[in-house]
Amino acid sequence: MKLTARQVNLFNLLKLPAAYFTGVRVKSINDTTCVVTVKHRWINQNPFKSMFWAVQGMGAELTTGALVLGKIRDSGQQISMLVANNNASFSKKATGRITFACNEGKKIDEAIANAIATGEGQTVWLNAIGTNADAVEVSNFNFEWSLKVRSKV
User: Could you tell me if 140 and 129 are in contact, meaning their C-beta atoms sit under 8 angstroms apart?
Assistant: First the structure.
C-alpha cells in the first residue's frame, strides 16, 4: 500500500505534534516527489515577523523523510532511517505560504537497493527547496539520511 499525504499528516498529529500544530502539512507524495506546505502564522513566526527557521526545517525534513519512509515501506524490508547530517541556507524572508519540495525518490531507491544487497548501512543526501507563493526560493535544505537493514533476530 502506497503512503498517502493523509497518512503522513495523521502520523504527524499523533507522533510529531509540534510539526502538526505549527501548520506543516504534506500536500502530495508519489514515487519521486513529496510536497509539503506551511503557512506563516503567529504560532510559527520569529521576532522579525517571518517564519522561524526551525519550522522551515520541519517542513523541509518532512519532504525528504516522508519519501524515505514510503520507499522503506515499499521495499518490504525492515530498514532503520536516521538524519545523520544537515545544512541549510536562507535567501529571503519566509512569509505567506511556503512550499517545500523534494524530487529525489530515485536516489532513495538506489540507497535502499545497496543497503539490501550489501547488508551495510548507506547514506543519501536529499535536497528540499522552500519557495514562497511567487515561486521565489526562500530556503534550501540538505539532509543526509542514514539507512541500514535491521538484522533479523
Answer: yes
